[in-house]
Amino acid sequence: MIQELSLTAQTLYAELLDQVLALGVAEPMSRTGGSFIRKVVKNKPYVYFQFRELGRAYRQVFIGPDNEKTQALIDRIKERNESLAEQEARIMDLARAFNAAGGYGMDHTSLKVIKGFADAGIMRPGVGQATLVGTYAYNLLGNVLGVTWPSNMRTQDIDVAADIHIAVEKPDLTAPEALDQLRMGFLPVPQLRHDNPSTSFKIRGKQLTVDLLTTGSGKNENPVKVPLFQSEAMPLQHMSFLLEVTVPTVAFDRKHIALVNVPDPIRFAIHKLLVSQIRPMAFRAKAAKDIAQASTILEVCTDQSPDLVRDALDEAIAMGSKVERYLVNACRKADMPDEFMAMIEG
Question: Which of 28, 95, 239, 327 could bond 215 through an S-S bridge, CB–CB 3.0 to 4.6 Å?
């Protein structure tokens, strides 16, 4: 059964996200100075903090969409006079309090990998950055939506996706280099076709796997070079729909924290329904998990934001009759909210 987090927990999460976004600017601001700039990406205005590190080119930290909420955050950042150590300690106190109040916290090993991608400049918040997808994203979306899922699904797959057409800023490291720097023993997993470069990495003797994914069209199943990763990734159908809208969230364990992108929850759910219908028969168990994740998210979102659900569904259906058929077939196999079924059938 889905349970709503207490008002206290939801307030703690909102404060945690606010503090982590502010710290992402405060740290370079204290060292180098810098300024807030506005830029248009994919015809939408966003705010970034731009600074220059010694001996390096300009770098930018994503703040948010150019709106009143982001401006209020900028004002709070400018007013802060705490030391970085004080801010970091307060953030970890907030994370622990949120976790104690029912919020989802990650295991240390998985967070180490995700933080490694973030520190390398590959998976920071903002347009043109990589997005955490898959089951880890699903678990984190519970925090975003203010709920706890019936059970946080366990996984050993860390799925990281990036749009092949967008890379706002070149990262410090390639994706394979970011994994090597962690010194965890990640090795490339050979492809079935030995002439194809690897898009998956695994620690020998362990289940933990990192998969690099990207946008694709048609039935192309061959790895493609992704500018953001500076390496190859596996293209997946309908990934562009999933990555079109992302939201920043906080991933944490007992001692560390990372600010990452996750997909918009409604798009995540719809994409899961689509993916469930195109998985090979050998992956039926994963298809069932896709549908289970989609149904729980849609149960929450159709209650919280039915108009947004309808808008995203209309956009998906506009991709073609095959997409609509996939959605209908997936919904027939799941216990979908009545409101969502009415939208599909209407």
Answer: 239
- Point out which residues pair with 202 in neighbouring strands: 187, 209
Residues 265-317 have pLDDT tens digits of: 999 999 999 999 988 776 778 888 999 999 999 999 999 999 999 999 999 99
Give me the residue label for tokens 């590959």: 122
Rounded to whole angstroms, how far apart are CA atoms 208 and 283? 18
What residue type is assigned to position 44 of the chain?
K
Delimit the domains of the chain by residue range: 3-263, 265-346
Q: Structure tokens of 150?
A: 């019936």
Q: Report CA torsion sign: 296, 272, 200, 192.
A: positive
Strands 186-188, 200-203: parallel, antiparallel or unpaired by DSSP?
Answer: antiparallel
Paired tokens of 131? 């997005």
For residue 237, list its beta bridge partners.
216
Question: Do the beta carbons of residue 172 and residue 154 sit within 8 Å?
Answer: no
Q: How many CB atoms lie within 10 A of CB 68?
A: 8
